[in-house]
Design goal:
By secondary structure, this protein is of the alpha/beta class. 26% of the residues lie in helices and 24% in strands. The strands form three sheets. A nine-stranded mixed β-sheet has the order 11-10-9-8-12-6-13-16-15, sandwiched between helices. It has a five-stranded mixed β-sheet with strand order 2-1-3-4-5, sandwiched between helices. The protein has a two-stranded antiparallel sheet with strand order 7-14. InterPro entries: APOBEC/CMP_deaminase_Zn-bd (IPR016192), CMP_dCMP_dom (IPR002125), Cytidine_deaminase-like (IPR016193), DHFR-like_dom_sf (IPR024072), Eubact_RibD (IPR004794), RibDG_C (IPR002734), Riboflavin_Biosynth_HTPR (IPR050765).
């Protein structure tokens, strides 16, 4: 007989939402670990401690939250809200399930179970075996959306792919022969730089790298730079281009051979049109959790044809027109529009 669904109070919902908000503070820094938030509340529902996973390799959310609880608080009367099942294994830090048991907390409410085979329900089992009441599934959909990158890696054994481009009001992404055109306004540009801080890597194809000479770093928003990924099949990218400047870690996928140097790693891939299997193998080996694909249309189309995308973000200008002869944006005939909003003079469309 199936276990009845647990019941949750409005206070439970409120405090789990707080835990999810805390988890989001780890965006860009917790990866490849999931973002996790934790709230400790006393018997009256008053928050007495909270924390989040601030940095990969650093203390987990439960450790930070419990460390913030004043010494005179009786943890035996406290409920812990955590957005992901407490870990049950030794990794870079000791198991959080063991810490909760040692602290003698009264009960634990969990948003999502951890699909990682090293955890996968063992954290819950360990807590219950120690006599701690555990409820699961509170705001489960919201938790999965927050950690959609982590869940994709664990469940599909590949990174989370976001395809992004800007297109003119008449549906072009560049001028004739790939000539760069400033399409997006300042507000959209700032938003794109924020997106870069949120993803572990950023990818472009050969023609975009040659024509645009992009830096693929973060300048308009505070946060970490992503790992740069560039497809340069025949090693045609000039040494003077930004992607080879050694300013941040960069992986170059090529059919040729070249020596690694100056923050650059060259990965030789098979000499065929289908580069994706070799690239996916390399990304998985590097524990890359997400890829923001900024162009160009040939790379976008290759990923679309392979069904290798999770989100598409299109910034469409209402003022810039390129005209005949430009590079056409990838055609979209998709359902699943998740979001549509105005960003300055541009319109953002997000498909999921």
């Amino acid at each position: 007989m199936a276990e009845p669904a647990p019941s949750f109070s409005p206070t439970d919902v409120l405090l789990m939402r707080r835990a999810l908000d805390l988890a989001l503070l780890g965006v860009g820094y917790a990866r490849p670990n999931p973002m996790v938030g934790c709230v400790v509340a006393d018997a009256n529902g008053r928050v007495v401690g909270e924390g989040w996973h601030r940095q990969y390799g650093g203390p987990h959310a439960e450790v930070n939250a419990l460390a913030a609880v004043p010494a005179d608080v009786d943890l035996g009367q406290c409920r812990v809200y955590v957005t992901l099942e407490p870990c049950s294994h030794f990794g870079k830090t000791p198991p959080c399930a063991d810490l909760l048991i040692a602290k003698g907390v009264r009960d634990v409410v969990v948003c999502n179970l951890d699909p990682n085979p090293l955890v996968a329900g063992r954290g819950i089992e360990k807590l219950r075996a120690a006599g701690i009441e555990v409820k699961t599934g509170l705001l489960e959909k919201e938790g999965r959306w927050l950690n959609r990158r982590f869940f994709t890696v664990q469940e599909r054994q590949r990174p989370y792919f976001i395809l992004k481009w800007a297109e003119s009001t008449d549906g072009f992404v560049a001028g004739p022969e790939g000539q760069p055109v400033a399409i997006s306004g300042p507000a959209a540009k700032m938003l794109v730089h924020r997106w870069r801080t949120e993803e572990q890597s950023i990818m472009v194809g050969t023609r975009t790298a040659l024509n645009d000479n992009p830096q693929l770093n973060v300048r308009e928003w505070p946060g970490p730079n992503p790992l740069r990924l560039v497809i340069d099949r025949n090693l045609t990218l000039p040494a003077t281009h930004h992607l080879l400047d050694g300013s941040q870690p960069t992986v170059v996928y090529t059919h040729g051979q070249a020596e690694d140097a100056d923050n650059r790693t060259y990965v030789s891939v098979p000499g065929s049109d289908d580069l994706l299997p070799a690239i996916l193998d390399d990304l998985n080996a590097r524990q890359v959790q997400s890829v923001l694909v900024e162009g160009g249309p040939a790379l976008h189309q290759m990923l679309l044809n392979a069904g290798l995308w999770d989100e598409i973000r299109v910034l469409r200008s209402s003022t810039v027109r390129i005209g005949a002869g430009g590079v056409v944006a990838p055609p979209l005939s998709l359902t699943g529009l998740r979001e549509q909003r105005t960003i300055g003079p541009d319109e953002l469309f997000v498909f999921f």
